[in-house]
Structures are given as structure tokens and as C-alpha cells.
Amino acid sequence: MAFVQRLQIEAVFNVLRNQNQQLESMLQRVWSQLKSAGLDGSIYVATSKSQSEIIQSQLDSSVRLIVEPERRDTFPAIALACTYLHSIVKAGANEMVCVLPVDSYTENHFYSRLKELEQLSAESDYEMILIGVKPDHPSEKYGYIVPDDEIGMGSCKRVKMFVEKPQKQRAQTLMEENALWNCGIFAFKLGYMVSLLQERGIPVQYEKLQSAYDTLPKTSFDYEIVEKAGTLAVYPYNGSWKDLGTWETLTEELDTSLQGKGTISELCRNTHVINELDIPVKVIDLSNIVVAASPDGILVSDKSASRKIKDLMNDTDQRLMYEERRWGWYRVLDYTNDRSGNERLTKKIIVHAGKNPSYQIHHKRKEVWTILSGEGIFAMNEQLIHVSAGDVLQIPAGAGHSMKATTDLEMIEVQMGSELGEEDTIRLFLSWDEIERNCSGRG
Question: How many domains, in total, are found in the chain?
Fold first, then answer.
């Protein structure tokens, strides 16, 4: 049984506390729960290229990623994941695929129940099985699955209809009809999805679909597949569950109203500030709002409207101002682009002890690295030299270069050139062992 997790950007913020009272992200929380259920060996994470290294940093460098060429929607992402399982992993047509979001906030027992879906599928002719959560209140935030109590196998019932985020009175009626919250978990045989793609003329070879990814409809898996399926079943779960996919629901699980530098005045009610910046945020006499401040931007929103941020961000093509990588992290301090096409980008970079970024080449920019603290080994053009605080390193365009930190190392990087994006980055080696083998001298 293969499990595919679809990652949303909010899932990598460290805002929840684990059993040791340490901050963790939704991704880390769900991963630890899957490990507790013994399912981590079957997990593949579907995500965008820009998030791949932060996932490796938060989880493990060996985590299996299925990288989307661009962000589209859940149908293209799940289609790509299925072609990967079909053509790369060579999974059989009867292999059960279970799609999980990472923004579910639930108990460990919830994930143990996922193992039962494979047996239910083998014993029935349902095209797809969903998990539905028994509501404990008439929520207007979730979609509902209405089961047909007269058709089914044991506790697994055939789906009669779906209802999208009803008003409170309608939600109350749905509860009385034994409707379940739709938690966005789908289980189906791999061959079922492969056949649907073939019927639509969509490539089922992973490399071909990657190349044609921008031609796929930018739509949800629910709309494109689930709502059009012939035979659907829902498997009820009676336990604690919550969707943390919006800032409104996420703040309900925070143990403090203020994270980071800032002040919330006494007259504020139900107001939360999550501040990842070094400057303070002060909120005066405003209630029912969330303020989320990071290097990539500042959100100020009424909590009930916070879900609209996804619509506002759909057409945004903004440079990432902060990224976690497998070797550490960086923060953009300044960026300028003059009228003649010359760009300049300044970053603060932390490389953790024993780690290194890839050995890489840029043809359209030069770089200057200034070591602020720590020590390391600098590699450039097959030479290795020891560096420490105060050293300034000039890296011309076309030079291969990397750095291994022997202690935690802090530096300022200034990039200057006509193109400063990933398109001008050629990665030659990832591991330091590879880098050392290809460096012939030591300065």
C-alpha cells in the first residue's frame, strides 16, 4: 500500500508543540504519527521544487519526494504521483494508493485505521474509499459526506452525496442524517487511476507527464475524479479530528496567542500573532484577527476570512525571501534590479556544522562570500582552503564552488549578474565526499 502526502506551504511553519514541548510543523507532526503507525516506509511526499529541501531538512534526507514541475492543484499532483508509482516504482495495478493531506490534526489512532482500507478495497468493488469523520458539532468549515445507510459492507457505507460547507442549520440536519466530515483522504487501486488518465489521453509515463504537466487542468482531485466516480464508499472514523488548513483553525491549536516578538493589547480578543521577523509586531484593540509575519510577507486578516489568502496568492510569482535547506537556511536581506538588467541579491546564510550545499556553477553571476562567524572548508575550482570569521571569498562566474561547515557557519552572500535564479544553477556534486574526490589540491 502506497501513501501519497500532498504538501501545502502552511504545513512547514513550526507553530505546534510536540510531546517534548518543542515547536514542530504540521508536516513533522503527521510524519511522526505515520511512523508510530508503522507506515513511513510506504510514504511518498508530493510537493513543489521550492519545498523539496525544507522537507528533507524537517524530516530526513532519505524521504521519497515526487516533485511537481510547477504548482497547479490536487488533480495534477495526484496524477503525477500515480504515474511515478506506475512507471518508476513499477507498482502493480492492484496496489492500493491512499492520498493524505498534511494539515489534519488528529490522534495517532486515526492513522492506524488507514491500514484497514486495503482489506476493505480487496473485499469490495468500490472504485474509491474515503474516510469520513463523525462530527461532534455542526461545523460550517467542512464539507460533508452523506452515506447511504442501507448499502454497504459492515461499517463501510456507499456514498449517497456530497455537501460543501453548509450553513449551520443545514449542518445540524446533516449530523442528524449521520453525515460525516470529509477529511480529504482517498484510497483507490493504482490501476483505476491509470485507466482514468489513459481515457483522458494523459500520459501514464512519469517523465512524459512531467514534460506535459502544464497542459493538465488546474483543478482539484475532488472535482475531477471523486465527484465523477461511479461507486464510492466512506469509512467512518469516530474520534478527534480537525483540519488545520486555514490560519483560523490553526490558531485554535496554538498554546499561546503570541509567537515571536510583539505585543497584543489587553482589549484584544481571540487575536493571534505569529511573527518570524526580528522586528516587533504590536496589535492594539483588534479582535478575531491573525497576524502572520515572515520574510516572505505579512498577513493581517479577520480569522473567518483567512482562507481567502490562497486565492490572493494564486497569481503571485514572488521570490522566496526565506528557505530552509538540507544544509541550513538563508534569508534574503536585499534585492535590486536596475534598468539595464543587472541584478544584486544579498543573503544571510547559515550552514550547520558538518553540512554543505551542493558544488555548483553559475554562468550569469558572480558571488562574494563574507564569513561572519564559524569555520569551514571552502571548495572552488578543485581547490580546498580553510576559512574562518573575517575571510572574504570572491567567486567568479563559471567557477565551481561549495562550503562545508566544520562548526556552525554564518556568512553574507552577495550575488551580482544578469540572472540570479535557479535557472543559472548547475549542481555537479551533492555530498562532500564527492566534492573532496574531485578537488585535487589544498590551499
Answer: 3
Question: Residues 192-213: what's their mean pLDDT?
Answer: 95
How many Å apart are CA 380 and CA 373, to the nearest integer?
20
CA distances from 46 to 5, 79, 98, 145, 320 (A): 6, 10, 12, 25, 20
Structural Rg of the chain based on CA atoms: 24
- Assess whether 341 and 408 both reside in one domain: yes
DSSP letter for 271, please.
-
35-44, 95-104, 292-301, 342-351: which has the highest mean pLDDT? Answer: 342-351
CATH at residue 13: 3.90.550.10
- CB 255: neighbour CB atoms within 10 A? 10
Higher pLDDT, 87 or 121: 87
> pTM for this structure?
0.76
Kind and range of the H or E run holding 370 = strand 365-373
Residue 361's H or E segment, with its range, is strand 359-361
Domain boundary among 187, 211, 245: 245
Listed residue (74, 84, 85) closest to 224, CA to CA: 74
Q: Are residues 235 and 181 in the same domain?
A: yes
Res. 164: pLDDT tops 60: yes
